[in-house]
Specification:
The chain is built from twelve helices and twelve strands. It is an alpha/beta fold and 301 residues long. The strands form three sheets. Strands 3, 4, 5, 6, 7, 10, 11 and 12 form an eight-stranded mixed sheet that branches.
Length: 301
């Protein structure tokens, strides 16, 4: 079994097909197919099934993919350790992050990190909370940053900060003058909402339901930026993470409203990593920086 076969197999899975994997690897599609077939022959197992242009892992493929990822990462760690030995400060850091964190929190952190560690190459991938968790569990990423604490026997969670969820409106809207809305008033105002199949939306909806609030949702988006833009345009109100709207609240393009008798909502942005994963010098440096930037993390019960 060759390492290149494992790399090719993982790339096919990650890219969702042979054609895209061939482009990423700089190989011909027949060459990629041949390597995967050779791996299957050596392991005496079918690893992939095709569904149109997409590929899916078989149960055997799931097992091989998990082990292949660990093997590839271990070799990369070894190479990084040797390079760091030859050139102190050299290294590689991989981070998975949910899109909200990637847009509004990570740039400041990485800006400070690359100034402290200019020889470290940083790679970032975005995904949902579950996708980032999977990346970390599969050893695809050194670290993950998500918007809720994760409870998993293989995962160590480090809370960073509490991100309030605030009700926002355009300062030019008729609702902005009230500043405090009753649950009944809130139910009658057009609401711009984040996509309903998200953990964020489920959390907000459950909290509204418990308070007897039935929001009049007129628009739904899979982007907090889109939700924010519609509120700025005066088309409705919205519940948004404070980190998403902090700049607009400071600039006066948005105002924060209160809900009478409603308990403040918030999410705890957290860093996650495998408990058994070796911490490279780059990872240790990143952890030191993050702890210095968020010196008073919230307690998680």
């Amino acid at each position: 079994m060759l390492l290149q076969q494992l790399v090719t197999f993982c790339t096919v899975v990650d890219e969702g097909g042979f054609t895209r994997a061939a482009e990423v690897l700089g190989l011909s599609q027949p060459a990629v197919t041949k390597q995967v077939k050779s791996l299957e022959k050596e392991l005496r197992a079918v690893l992939l099934t095709r569904a149109g242009r997409r590929v899916n892992l078989t149960p055997a493929g799931e097992i091989v993919y998990s082990y292949a990822r660990r093997i590839i990462h271990t070799i990369e760690e070894c190479q990084g350790a040797l390079e760091n030995l030859a050139t102190p400060g050299y290294g590689r850091l991989t981070i998975g992050a949910v899109s909200t964190v990637a847009i509004f929190t990570l740039p400041e952190i990485l800006g400070a990190f690359v100034k402290q560690q200019p020889l470290v190459t940083v790679h970032v991938r975005t995904g949902t909370i579950d996708q980032v968790l999977t990346m970390v569990l599969r050893n695809e990423m050194d670290l993950g940053i998500v918007t809720v604490p994760v409870s998993h026997e293989l995962i160590h969670t480090i809370p960073l900060f509490r991100d309030r969820i605030v009700l926002i409106a355009s300062p030019d809207s008729p609702w902005a003058e009230r500043r405090v809305l009753s649950p009944r008033e809130l139910s009658s105002i057009p609401m711009i909402a984040y996509e309903r199949d998200s953990k964020f939306r489920a959390y907000v909806d459950a909290s509204f339901d418990a308070a007897g609030i039935t929001p009049d949702v007129i628009m739904e988006f899979d982007s907090h930026e889109a939700v924010k833009a519609m509120v700025i345009a005066g088309l409705g109100i919205a519940m948004e993470p404070w980190s998403v709207v902090a700049k607009e609240l400071r600039d006066g393009r948005l105002v924060e409203l209160a809900i009478a008798g409603f308990e403040e909502l918030g999410r705890i942005t957290s860093l996650i990593m495998r408990r058994d994963r070796h911490q490279s010098p780059a990872v240790r440096a990143f952890l030191r920086l993050v702890r210095s930037m968020f010196p008073n993390p919230p307690r998680v019960f």
